[in-house]
Every structure is written in structure tokens, then in C-alpha cells.
Amino acid sequence: MSKVYWITGISGVGKTTFSNILKKELDRRNINSIIIDGDQIRKILKKQNEFSKESRFEIAMIYSRLAELFSKQNITVIVSTISLIKEIHSWNRKNLNNYVEILIKRDMNKILESDSRDIYNKNNVVGKSIDAEYPKQPDFTIENISIDKIESYIKNNIL
Predict the structure, then answer these.
(1) Rounded Cα gap, residues 21 and 16, in angstroms
(2) What is the pTM of this model?
(3) Which of 39-48, 72-81, 92-101 bottoms out in mean pLDDT, i.e. has the lowest?
(4) Residue 72 contacts by C-beta under 8 Å, 6 or more apart in sequence?
């Protein structure tokens, strides 16, 4: 049975890294899976510069609908996205079967130290100039985990 892993958190916490390691472990277990990466989907949709609240909601709903589409075809979906919008979390819980919400948090000083894309010097940044609506009860909250411990965390807790 397929699942939807919704990996969320502010920019720079390691969502993509976590998602790639999760995908690798699912592949190792021969579980058919796909990653929906928020940055990649924004690029495909040519929405890289649209950051209004309405635009963020619209794009997040696209991620949710894509996850629904693939999971109904028995594909496990990993969604790597900021999408810190309470209506999205609520919609996902109501509409996505086997939904697993994973919130990743990291110390802001560490995020700023490794901000190679200079994201936190821009406007319209969730967690800085835009309030983050964190999930109320994520299935997992991961804080300040080092890259070398992600794989064992996934094996021992997520899967």
C-alpha cells in the first residue's frame, strides 16, 4: 500500500537531503516511489518568482493533488516542500491516504551559516518575513539532525 510522506520545514532545514535519503531506502526495499520537490515543480510551472500568499497556496495544492494522483496509482510519494500553510496540512490529512507528515526543524544560526543560495537575504521568505504555519501535530518532528544520522533515523522511525 502506498504512502504520502510530506516533508516540510522552512528553507535550508534539509528537506531535499532527507527526501533523497528516504527515496534511496524505499528503492532498496523495492517500494515504488517518486519525489515531488517543491523547487523543481515551481521551475516546471514557471512560478519561481511568485510568492504571494495566494500563489503559495495554489502551488501547495498542486503538490497535494499530484501526491493524491500518484498515491492512487500505488506509488509512494515523497513531497519535499515548505508549504507551511494550515489549510494544506488539513486538506492533506483529510484527503491523502496513508499520509505521513514530517516536520524538519534546524537551528536558525546553522541555516544562515549554510545559506549558499542567499535565501534569507531576500524578501518573502517563510520563517523570516512570512510567518510559518507549522503543522499542529506532525507524525514526526526532527530537530537539528546531522546528515550522517538521517538514514538510521529513517530506518528506525519512519519506515
Answers:
(1) 9
(2) 0.87
(3) 39-48
(4) none
118 C-beta neighbours (distance < 10 Å), count? 7
* Domains parsed from the chain with CATH numbers: 4-158 (3.40.50.300)
User: Which among 126, 27, 40 has a CA at the least distance from the CA of 79?
Assistant: 40
* Residue 149 DSSP symbol: H
- For residues 61 and 55, is the Cβ–Cβ distance under 8 A? no
The full 3-state SS of 9-78, as one line of letters, equals CCCCCCHHHHHHHHHHHHHHCCCCEEEEEHHHHHHHCCCCCCCCHHHHHHHHHHHHHHHHHHHCCCCEEE
Q: Which one-letter DSSP state was computed for residue 89? A: H
Residues 8-22 have pLDDT tens digits of 998 788 889 899 999
Question: What does the pLDDT read at residue 66?
Answer: 94
Task: With a cut of 70, say whether residue 49 has pLDDT above it.
Answer: no
Q: What is the mean pLDDT of residues 92-103?
A: 95
